[in-house]
Design a protein that fits this description.
Layout (H helix, E strand, L loop, with lengths): L5 E10 L4 E3 H4 L7 H8 L3 E3 L7 H16 L6 E7 L10 H8 L7 E5 L5 H13 L6 E9 L9 H4 L4 E11 L4 E7 L6 E2 L23 E2 L1 H23 L8 E4 L4 H11 L10 H4 L6 H11 L8 E8 L3 E8 L1
Parallel strand pairs: 4-5, 4-6, 11-12
Antiparallel strand pairs: 1-7, 2-3, 6-7, 8-13, 9-10, 12-13
Helix pairs in contact: 3-4, 7-8
């Protein structure tokens, strides 16, 4: 059952690199073209980091915008959670680096959460639960990916899909706002993975360095089938727990995986596709960042109105899925 207090989003922010890579650029290096990519994915272009840009610089920019819009004292932020699978380091976490670079109080609980494309909604729920025991009022929730670092640019099926970016929001608990979350996981690396690689020979075991590349591996058909089962099932549980119907939702802000997946999901939920926000054409699949970027875009364009009912949903590597109901 839902806890009485819910979430109020006080501010949002996002950041994407300036460097744009339209579909025609991929046609120069792969057997593909703009029409083929657009028809199968809905993607027209994406953004890639350049020299000097990192996951941290994207996070910082998005977080500063979110904190500014929230109009809060950053000393009252007690929790920082970053959803990502492409952090700049194995350790320290992006969240710890953010705590330092943003000048947040030392008594800040900071850590990363890796649920791939579900990372932002998982982080949102985790921050919500932790705020119930926090001595500070606010949490900073971030999704960021720099997937351009882990793409196989010889693979037409995967390299065209992904982009870089970050999104963030500042939240607090609210007795006047609902929050219902449902999630699940189907463990296995076969459908979607980015393998860890080890570069040095182990002198104690004589284990040779890995020869495989640390790149995204994805079985698009399997992921498609997974989402078509997992997301509607997850959303249905949220509707039941929240005591609402799909027709009451103003916007579905879902992970921007593939336009066909979003259209099929709308059909399965029997809601007009117009309720599904789409920006995959501009940014590609930004994994954990996509829901946060979409939320910020809806907010900054003035589309969202206070009191509107939202579903935020992520689904991806793990395999993981999660759906959250809240009001703006």
């Amino acid at each position: 059952m839902a806890v009485k207090k819910g979430i109020k989003i006080l501010g949002t922010g996002s950041s994407v690199p300036d460097f744009e890579v339209p579909n025609d650029e991929f046609a120069k290096i792969l057997d593909t073209n703009d029409e083929w990519i657009t028809e199968r994915t809905g993607i027209k272009t994406r953004r890639f980091v350049q020299e000097g840009e990192t996951s941290l610089t994207l996070c910082e920019d998005a977080c500063k915008k979110a904190i500014s819009e929230a109009g809060i004292d950053k000393e009252e932020i007690g929790i920082v959670i970053v959803g990502t699978c492409t952090a700049d380091y194995i350790t320290p976490s992006m969240a710890c680096l953010l705590q330092g670079s943003l000048g947040l109080d030392e008594r800040t609980l900071a850590f990363d959460l890796n649920a791939a494309c579900s990372g932002f909604v998982y982080s949102l729920n985790t921050a919500y639960l932790l705020l119930h025991g926090s001595f500070k009022k606010y949490a900073l929730v971030v999704g960021v990916e720099v997937l351009s670092r882990v793409l196989d640019y010889t693979d037409r099926g995967s390299s065209i899909l992904f982009g870089d970016g970050a999104g963030a929001c500042v939240i607090e608990l609210s007795g006047e706002k609902p929050f219902v979350f449902e999630a699940g996981s189907i463990g296995g690396a076969e459908s979607l993975n980015i393998p860890m690689t080890y570069q040095e020979k182990n002198p104690f075991t004589n284990k040779e360095p890995d020869t495989h590349k640390q790149v995204v591996n994805i079985n698009g058909n399997e992921v498609y089938r997974f989402v078509q089962d997992a997301f509607p099932k997850s959303a249905a549980i949220v509707f039941e727990q929240a005591g609402i119907t799909p027709d009451e939702i103003d916007y579905f802000i879902c992970h921007q995986a593939n336009l066909r997946i979003l259209m099929a999901s709308a059909k399965k939920l029997k809601v007009p596709f117009e309720k599904f926000f789409v920006n995959i054409d501009k940014y590609g699949n930004t994994s954990a960042a996509s829901v946060a970027i979409a939320l910020d875009e809806l907010n900054k364009t003035g589309t969202l109105k206070r009191g509107q009912k939202l579903i935020l949903a992520g689904f991806g590597g793990g395999l993981t899925y999660g759906s959250a109901y809240l009001t703006w």
